[in-house]
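CORE FACILITY INTAKE
Project code: CF-77B
Contact: R.S. (postdoc)
Sample description: multi-component assembly, two entities in total
Requested service: structural model of the whole complex
Turnaround: standard
Below are the sequence entries exactly as provided by the requester. Do not edit them.
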Amino acid sequence: MRNPLRSEAQAFRFLMVVIVAALAIGGGAYINTWLGIVAAVLAVAGIVWWLMQEPMPGTGEPARRVDPSTPAGTHRVLVVAMPGTSSVAVGADATEIVVIVPALVSTLEAEQTALSLTRRLSRPGVSVRGEVGPDDPWLAAEDALRTFGADAIVVAGDAGIADEIRGRVTVPVSLA
Amino acid sequence: MAVHAEHLDHGVHEHPPEAHYSSRISPSILGMFLFIGSEIMLFGAFFTAYFFVRVVAGTPWPTPPFHLPVFVALVNTCILVTSSFTMHWALQSVKRGNVFGLRAGLLLTFLMGLTFLVTQGREYSRVGFAPKDGAFATIFYCLTGLHGAHVFIGLSILLFMTIRAFRGHFSPEDHRGVEIGGIYWHFVDVMWIVVYLTVYIL
């Protein structure tokens, strides 16, 4: 279906169609009111038909290939750290790092940990970002992975959490 | 939702994740689209009242001894339709980098919209009936008044657009503010044509 409000140009074109229809209705009504009503019904049907002529945008296009690989020279590392973690080791090949800290007890504590780890991991040429996630470590990691396609995951703290994450993702998971 | 705790050090580039949305329509245009959708429903409610008064209740239209100023409204319609052309010209101008065309187009559109509104106010003062004078008068004022309110909103948007245009805020690469305002203005124009046809002509 054609969307007449998709852009100003489309809206203007729709206005032109409405003006033509209005002239037909006005002309019909000038002769006889019922003729005007018939013209209005036909005009509305015509406009609906015109709007239906165009397929939904994008439906005719082939589905885009989703490429899970990161660009050459980029290595993204997701760090899942428990609140209170003071340091974590991330390989020197990392170019983008996201530190996710589940808010197990309080958001403030998790935020402080995320900030502290972000500072420690910052180095020239590396993009580092810290976030506070939900109180479930796996859920926090999963949320982060939705917007950050990591090449590797580093878990700081609990081996059990590392095992749980390892069982659910295909990227390498290491315990720091 | 995650709370962000960011740190900028050593000139390191840090930023929150890019906003994710469908690439098929921008969020601002989608917002205007949804807003106009709600406006169509609002107008739909008023047209339903019109339909019931005129068709179901069989109220004479216009109810004697009143008359509708069809010719003045026709002139007003021509003014409003012309303002859509100048609006379109303004947007085409900014796309081509023509700053004069953008400013002149927006200014003319604003002036024509203002003329429409002033003429409508003048028409109200001379039409000879008030909203309390029966169902016909109530519906007339409701439909034209509702549209007038939309013209006023459109004029407010146009005023900001015009000021921004004179301050040089728009360019061939960045003119989203004109695009969205233009969509709204054309919607107001289309609604007036429907109001004019139903209230004054049919």
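Facility notes:
- Chain B touches chain A through 43 residues (CB under 8 Å).
- The radius of gyration of chain B is 22 Å.
Invoice: internal transfer
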